[in-house]
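Sequence only, no structure available. Ideas?
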Amino acid sequence: MKIFLPLFLVFFTLNLFAQTLDSIKFEGIVHISKPVALRMLTFEKGDEINMKMVDDAIKIYFKQGYFNDIWVELNGGDLTFFFKEKAIISQIELKGWKDNDEEIQDAVVQIKKGSLYDEKLLQDAKKRIIEAISQEGKLDSVVEITTEYLENGSIKVTFIVNEGEEIIINKLQYSGVKGLDPDMFDSVIANKEHDFMGWFWGQNDGKMSLADLAYDNLRIRDLYMQNGYLDAKIKEPFVRVNFNHYTADMSYQIKEGEVYTIGKVILAQSKQVVDDALLRSIISLREGEVFNIKAFREDAEKIKTLIADRSYAFVQVVPDLKKNKEDQTVEVIFKITPGDRVRIRNVVISGNTRTLDRIIRRELYLGPGDMYSLTDLKDSRNSLGRLGYFEGTTIEEKRVNNQTMDLVVKLKEVPTGNVQLGGGYGSFGGILISVGVNDRNVWGSGINLGLKAEKSETTESYSFNVSNNRLNDSDFSGNFSIYTSAFDYNDYSVASEGISIGTGHRFSRYISGYLGYGFSSNAYTFDDTIDLNVTDTFYFEDYTKSGITISAKWDDTDDFYLARHGFNLSQSFEKAGLGAEANYMKSRTDFGKYMGLEEYIGFDAIFRYKARLNVLVDSGYIPLAEKFYMGGIGSVRGYQAYSLSPVITDDSGTVRRIGGEKTFSNSLEMSIPLVPKAKMRVVFFVDWGFIGDDSITDISRGGYGAGLEWFSPVGPIQLMFSSPLNVNDGNIAGQDDKVSSFDFTMGQRF
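Reply:
I predicted one. Tokens follow.
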């Protein structure tokens, strides 16, 4: 610290008595206002001061951390403090690791733009960067810090990172294992032995994760406790690292103990709010069975939910175990403290800058004055997610007192509409020119409005549609659409004009129904290879269609686009033949199961199973365009859209696709995060489907591959890269399968 007191020291040297202050001034001070600086002094104008008082004042200012240097001058009775403030950091850059990742800057670097330059803060950030890299299993990382003074006087700080080497686990051993198969441990631990061809999908790459190393022994112990080994002891692994080759050998010392069975299951309620028989009916633990710690936790959660649904919002369920080592039995005790019944005082909604409050409130199953229910709370969150208007919906519980709470609904809106003017390229339709306006939440009202015109190599369509899922905030819905279109199938084209209108009703939280009517006029045109003189014209007659559709749907998923929980099941029946040529009955069944795996494997993977069953029953006349076809997204990827179909051979010997009357397809998918910040995920899939007329298994095809799921600024996009399975080169009557390696869609549910 530089302290310059020439006049002040001379004064004290010559006069040896205190000086009366006439004024106090500050020069160069920015971060502290002058009134605040005056209040920090132990003296003021008119007081007598000495050298110690001034020295103490300088120390107080310096402790604030804003200054590199402070000095004073005393001229007569005028005291002036001079400050040299620290420079401001205006730019922060990461190079060589997580380059300019803002989330990493917030979580690891922890230095904000506008902070004062402080060498200690930079060194602390350097240590955090090295520690974060080491948690990824990389050792010997080096971080250099460079600073650059900019023209405005601020400083640019750059962290130059040279990442260390990854540690590969060559050998992993377990000693003391008798009751369980060591291969079971791979399902729970993060640090696994390197497999041959470890880079291949499904194999262990052997990369060490230091962040998980301290928890892997606990995961193994938990697995033992799921199999009744309550005395199991697993020490932290012994790790021997070869720094010459950056490989490691690991070993665990395990003492298993004995397997415990359940002696008693005791329910101890501090006050009786639920019959014990009802509680016992929902828990899975039974006397005489091998104890399972996972079922133990799940049962505690079931009890909590059951009681919380009876308005005991602050219920506490404390599970306890009493082991009897002599006979290897355990008493399972659930200590239940219900607390008081809780009422909702207020529901506060935040984050909805566009969507009207009433659109949100009508999806909530809890409101002011209602008694609390945990299931109602969870269902409210899922109902908001199914709207597709928000992401990251949370409902916080704010305790007011023992009998009252507030609910705070925090929302983050996502784009629900777009204005489209331009074009693109589709895997089936080729070059596409499109002009349209579509919004699923017009003016935040919950109304879906669309106006669109499209033209591509295979399609031409113009449409207008409007729908409202909650007419006048009721449980009724309504829709209206009008369209004209022309669609080129593989061998022919169909031009259609139509209108539809319908209404629906929500019968419960998960069940809804629909009744609609539609009319269309349809006309065929054919490619040059079709000779109507030798082709059965029964399949290519112009027709009109008039019919009603009735459907029912179950949906308890937690999100519209990217569900991680629940399933949906829908069944619809269409009856055509009401005063028009087409006369048939069509049944469509769709099923989807969604399961988030983060709690099991530690990251946001999603498993999906989807299935579709379609059946067509002839009631007089089934037009060709009304039959079913497979191929592409939504049925079997790896084949061109609408290319899989039963065929006929006309009198000229030409093979024609005529569609099927029965079809079934299903898909297994695994979606995992790719670039979370950009809302990108990668999905791996396997599809298989069947189609036929007399038998649904006339044609059987499959496909597999991987794709990109992306919440882009213009909506959800799927890019799918696939390969076919069971390809028939020389299909029925010599018709080759038409394969496809790429498909994409916009706006559809993942």
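Residues 1-17, 421-428 have pLDDT under 50 and may be disordered.
Hope that gets you unstuck.
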